[in-house]
């Protein structure tokens, strides 16, 4: 077998693809609760218009996603009222922000420029396993020591 060919044990199986699909389905929720939390940290309230501007999407898109997240007990809102995080939503925002920071710190520690690290961390944070995240955090400490 040539060195360029992967061993059968190295080829991702269905469980890997299932995890990727699951990660993709939670990305929007994580992004939205983080955005609501960020907006609330700078303003007294968060409205659909704020999220539409934040993400550069339509009011209709935000309304649809906010409705879904209300159903998942991550957000609370009523017609013509601000959007609030539930306790579950706040926990998810904090966890997501922590993952993002660990990935971004690692990328900076290996020499990636700040703008690229911030951009890349936004995608990676949703797909990194807790085991890998712990290794990244440990290696970042070692690289920065």
TrEMBL record:
InterPro entries referenced in this protein's UniProt entry, alphabetically: DtxR_MntR_Metal-Reg, Fe_dep_repressor, Fe_dep_repressor_sf, HTH_DTXR, Iron_dep_repressor, WH-like_DNA-bd_sf, WH_DNA-bd_sf
Where is there biased composition of kind Basic and acidic residues?
16-29
Q: Which residues form the HTH dtxR-type domain?
A: 26-86
Q: Name one GO cellular component term.
A: cytoplasm
Where is this protein chiefly located? cytoplasm
Keyword flag Glycoprotein: no
Coiled-coil spans in chain: none
Using the UniProt annotation, give all residue ranges assigned to the region (Disordered): 1-29
Give one GO molecular function term. DNA binding
Please give the family membership noted in the entry: Belongs to the DtxR/MntR family.
Role of this protein: In the presence of manganese, represses expression of mntH and mntS. Up-regulates expression of mntP.
Known partners and oligomeric status: Homodimer.
Q: What is this protein called?
A: Transcriptional regulator MntR
**Organism annotation:** Allorhodopirellula heiligendammensis
């Amino acid at each position: 077998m040539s060195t360029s060919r992967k061993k059968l044990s190295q080829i991702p199986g269905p469980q890997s693809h299932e995890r990727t699909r699951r990660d993709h389905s939670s990305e929007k929720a994580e992004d939205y609760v983080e955005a609501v939390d960020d907006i609330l940290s700078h303003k007294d309230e968060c409205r659909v218009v704020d999220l539409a501007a934040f993400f550069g999407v339509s009011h209709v898109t935000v309304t649809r996603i906010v409705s879904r997240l209300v159903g998942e007990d991550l957000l609370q809102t009523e017609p013509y009222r601000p959007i609030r995080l539930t306790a579950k939503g706040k926990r998810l925002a904090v966890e997501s922000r922590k993952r993002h920071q660990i990935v971004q710190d690692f990328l900076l520690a290996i020499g990636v420029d700040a703008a690229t690290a911030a951009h890349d961390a936004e995608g990676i944070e949703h797909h990194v396993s807790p085991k890998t995240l712990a290794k990244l955090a440990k290696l970042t400490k070692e690289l920065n020591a």
